[in-house]
Amino acid sequence: MSRLFLVRHGQASFLERNYDKLSAKGETQSRMLGEYWAGLNLCFDRVYSGPRVRQRDTARIAGEAYKAAGIAWPEPTVLQEFDEFQAEAVIERSLPELIETDADIRTMNLAFKAAQTRPEQFKTFQAMFEVIIGRWADGMLPLDGIEPWEMFCSRVQHGLAELCANEGNGQQIAIFSSGGPVGVAMQRALDLSTKSTLKTAWMVRNCSFSEFLFSPGRFTLSTYNAVPHFTDPEFLTHR
Question: How far is CA 107 from CA 15, 124, 125, 127, 129, in A?
Answer without folding.
Answer: 19, 10, 11, 11, 13
